[in-house]
Amino acid sequence: MRLRNVKGSRDTIADSEFVIHDEKSNRGQWNKIFGNDNPINIEIGMGKGMFITEMARRNPDINYIGIEKYSSVLVRAIEKRELEENMKNLFFIRMDAEEIEEVFGNEEVSYIYLNFSDPWPKDRHAKRRLTSDRFLNRYKNILTKDGAIQFKTDNVMLFDFSLESIEESGWKIDAMTRDLHHSDYNEGNVMTEYEKKFSEMGNPINMVRFRP
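Below the sequence we write its predicted structure tokens.
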């Protein structure tokens, strides 16, 4: 996917009070950033932030951290965050998911959201997929004992790959559907920008929730 550069995005990110810039120094003590011991949920590859901002709005007793590596996308999430004057439970990090274990300590994260991740369609890039065994092993180290992951995508190839990766890595599936919006699991579902776009095109949305 080719991303359009947004002029001034890096300056906006550098100046934003909602972006944590020394993320690695907070490893194991993110509760101090939020000023409480509420559960921490993260979204890896949050895009323009529609999903995680709405989740934070609905759940003030849960702390949220949105992770995005592209400045031109993160800046749009910051714009949404700036409209939420009373929101205290949402921060952002600009980083690559490869570094996830350097930013979060063991059992520090309660829930991970993976929404419409890059499918990396070429076989030689399979390890870059956020549901590959390489990433699942990283997630396992930062999740709490009762932690879980939710993954959504319209990409059937990526979803099939993910199900195989989950099984081979020994994770347990709690819920799974290949048509989220026409299933019982859709109650309370919060859509992402991509989810809204693809569902309006008639694409079924795949979803799986799983835990170590």
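The radius of gyration is 16 Å.
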